[in-house]
Amino acid sequence: MFFIPAPVISFLTFPGVIVHEAAHQLMCRVTKTPVLKVCYFQLGNPAGYVIHDAPSSGWKHFFISVAPFLINSILGVLICLPVALATAAKTSVGPVDVLLGWVGISVAMHAFPSTGDASSLWGTLKADTTPWLLRIIGFPVVGVIYLGAALSMAWFDAIYAALICFGAPVVLLEMLA
């Protein structure tokens, strides 16, 4: 494996950072959780952030934390879909396809919530008032977030993005055929 500094990766995949933060902000709006400050992209660590009030329930906190996983994954697949279908059909790929592929992969690469999101969610899950169902769902999700962060050192985020953006449409086509 080769090492590329995080700010360089963030710069090259900035559309994904922006969508990641917008997903957090959108879920704050959906859950009526006040947003105090948003930075969609910056060179540095973190590459972006959303600062919000404490959600009024553990479930709201959970959905705010995992919103990027759902939104970035779905948008990444949808953006790459024309390119994936053209590639699967073995037709020529033009400049617009390359642009769509880059944007889609960039968005999908930033699907995993940050370790900061996981840490914050962990605190909510440990609270005495947290419902047992949320704990059953939430604790493994926090573990997966930390695992994804650790595996990102081995390009797991890029592998995940490529699989869902280009593998999922091919599998769906084969299932429909």
Structural account:
By secondary structure, the chain is mainly alpha-helical. It has one domain (about 5-175). Helices cover about 70% and strands about 5% of the residues. The protein has 7 helices and 2 strands; from the N terminus they run H-H-E-E-H-H-H-H-H. Strands 1-2 form a two-stranded antiparallel ribbon. Helix 2 (about 15-30) crosses helix 3, helix 2 (about 15-30) packs across helix 4 and helix 4 (about 95-110) crosses helix 7. The N and C termini lie far apart (about 35 Å). The mean pLDDT is about 90.
Short description:
The chain has helices at 6-12, 14-30, 58-88, 95-109, 115-126, 132-151, 156-176, and strands spanning 35-39, 49-52.
* Overall average pLDDT: 91
Proportion in helices: 55-70%
Number of domains: 1
Low-confidence stretches are: none
Helix count equals: 7
Query: How far is it from the N-terminal to the C-terminal residue, by CA?
Result: 37 Å
Major β-sheet profile: 2 strands, antiparallel
Secondary-structure content class:
mainly alpha
Which percent range describes the beta-strand content?
5-15%
| Helix-strand topology string | HHEEHHHHH
Query: Would you count the extended β strands for me?
Result: 2
The value of Rg in angstroms is: 17 Å
Q: What shape does the CA trace take?
A: globular
Strands of the widest sheet, in order across it, are: 1-2
